[in-house]
Amino acid sequence: MKKQAHRTCILGLGERSTQYYVSTLHKKYHKTLGDYHTFPFLLYQIDFNAINPFLPDQFDTLVPELTKIIRSISDFKASHYLIPNITLHETVDKIKHQLNVVHPVQLTIKHCKTHNINKIALFGSRYTITSNYITNALTTAGINVVKPSEEDLLLIDDFRTKTYRNSETDSDFKVYNQLIQKHTNSYPVVTACTELSLHHERLDNSNVIDMALLQIETVLTQELNKS
């Protein structure tokens, strides 16, 4: 296969989350260039069930399974690789590889440093909020992490779960939006879950830093700046 410069390879995972990345890339690319432009990329779709039942932290299964996938997508020799699942990057970090993975945690640190943000509230799944993976990375970089109360955590995770099942209602979103408003009154909120990313545009809140959107903006910029 001939190497394509400045080409993004997207690892296809869950249908709704993958489609969010794809549709957002197309939308933003078209908004910039107009006419009939669509974002160019390679998609490697896997059966998400080979991974999802073992998320977030059954690494004995996740690491060898994802290692095989990484070996497969490395054949595309893309300039950067986009993985539409924030949690899965913890497993990626445990694998030796040469891929230029667009890493949501590192992008978040860079964004916070650039904007002089030294304290954030973290939204995501129960695992994301209570585990040390993202918290330790941000703290090590000098960014303090505030975690929601147990009551708020349950509401956030319930909304995330309903979104994954495509069963969230307007009432559910209203509760989630109220939580966002509550926490952004004190600190910027970092959303570290693709299901929550699906609602980012509807929130219309400049104090929300969405990890998926940081990934999307990065590959979009790289594609637009190619020469």
Could you explain how this protein is built, in words?
- By secondary structure, this protein is an alpha/beta fold.
- The protein folds into two domains: 8-103 and 215-224, 3-Layer(aba) Sandwich (Rossmann fold), CATH 3.40.50.1860; 104-210, Rossmann fold (3-Layer(aba) Sandwich), CATH 3.40.50.1860.
- 51% of the residues lie in helices and 12% in strands.
- The chain has helices spanning 15-33, 59-74, 89-92, 104-114, 126-130, 133-140, 150-164, 170-184, 194-197, 200-203, 211-224, and strands at residues 8-12, 41-45, 80-82, 119-123, 144-146, 189-191, 208-210.
- The strands form two sheets. Strands 5-4-6-7 form a four-stranded parallel sheet. It has a three-stranded parallel sheet with strand order 2-1-3, with helices on one face.
- Helix 1 (15-33) crosses helix 11 (211-224).
- The longest helix is centred in the first third of the chain and has 19 residues, at 15-33.
- The model has no long low-confidence stretch (mean pLDDT 95).
